[in-house]
Amino acid sequence: MIVAFLTHPYWVLLIVLIGCYIFDTTAIGRTERSITSMSAVSGTYLHKIVERKKIEVDRMLRMHQSDSDPLVMRMSYINSQSNFNISKALRRDGYGQDELHTMSVLVDMKRRSPTGRVDLRNIVEYSSAAKFSELLALGGADALMINTEEIEYGGKVTDLKDCVKSLKSLKANNDKAPPCIHKDIIIHPVQIAQALEDGAQGVLLIAAIVGSDLETLLDSCTIMGTEAIVEVHTPNELDFALSKGATIFLVNMWDRMTNRLYPDQAKGMASMLPVNTIAVAAGNICTLEHASELGFYGYDGVVLGRGITQVPDIKAYIDSVHSFAGSPRSFGLGFKGLPWQS
């Protein structure tokens, strides 16, 4: 009778849960990175980008000094309305009567990438970011990250504004228009203000770059009424970001410091993510099997970045990810990290 009791499906599942929440560092490539060393390492491509951004930010601050300047006003006054479009887009409604866990697809629009092999850094060459964003929207993308960093990512300063304008035309025709998230090396609130002025509905903050400035940047997002996705790679970065109030995470399996891919990083960190946070995984995810596996670990979505070149039919891939149905989000012990299929 005792054996029958302990082998009941619910008890078996509980045992599996407990095993999942015992943090296994062997599943993680990078487990430590102190907060004080989060800023870009000297000599890496990150350091070079950050140094360029400091010059760019200094120029922006010199240009926007008047009290009546739109960017100064955005940074100085609390927005009476908050924008939660990113949360709504990335956490799709549950499926069916049981509210089964569903997944979203966030497309990272970039012409090239500084990570990976040198001969594979060109991703997608598109002349019009606006037209490309329209195609991705019609393909079912839930949100778009618009890269504006030119040297390493091939972005253009006008890409964000052009995409926002183009997608507004879809809304006018009652078509679904995914929110645009500004992706750049953001190190100062003035960049957030400029992104919002250009129509962005959220920004990406990279923990490995901003380090202890993360809290200030998150507070700036709150003041300006927008949301921030915080990119993390290590448990230390995640723990630090949680302590500063971050609620939306992009767990990147690429280590920006070493330019190495750790394919089990997202799975290993899943059990550290509170269930009430929103988390998407990134890092060469290009198959439905890979996306579904991450869904079983509790991720709310996946990022389609460099993997876009390996997907023969983008719409079919997005539709397949959307069809995923896993365990209800309310199921568990308060954290993600549940490799279980309903």
Blueprint (SSEs and pairs):
Layout: H1 2-6, H2 9-21, H3 45-63, H4 70-76, H5 85-90, E1 104-109, H6 129-138, E2 143-147, H7 150-153, H8 159-172, E3 180-183, H9 189-197, E4 202-206, H10 207-210, H11 214-223, E5 227-232, H12 235-243, E6 248-252, E7 254-255, E8 260-261, H13 265-269, E9 278-282, H14 288-296, E10 301-304, H15 314-322
Parallel strand pairs: 1-2, 1-10, 2-3, 3-4, 4-5, 5-6, 6-9, 9-10
Antiparallel strand pairs: 7-8
Helix pairs in contact: 4-9, 6-8
Terminal Cα span: 27 Å
| Strand composition percent | 5-15%
Strand order of the largest sheet: 1-2-3-4-5-6-9-10
| CATH level-two architecture | Alpha-Beta Barrel
H/I helix tally? 15
Mean pLDDT: 85
Structural classification: alpha/beta
- The count of β-strands is 10
CATH topology (fold) name: TIM Barrel
The level of helicity is 25-40%
User: What's the CATH superfamily, by name?
Assistant: Aldolase class I
Order of helices and strands: HHHHHEHEHHEHEHHEHEEEHEHEH
Overall shape: globular
Sheet with the most strands?
8 strands, parallel, barrel
Low-confidence runs: 1-26
CATH C-level category: Alpha Beta
> From the alpha-carbon coordinates, what is the Rg to the nearest angstrom?
20 Å
Q: What is the count of structural domains?
A: 1
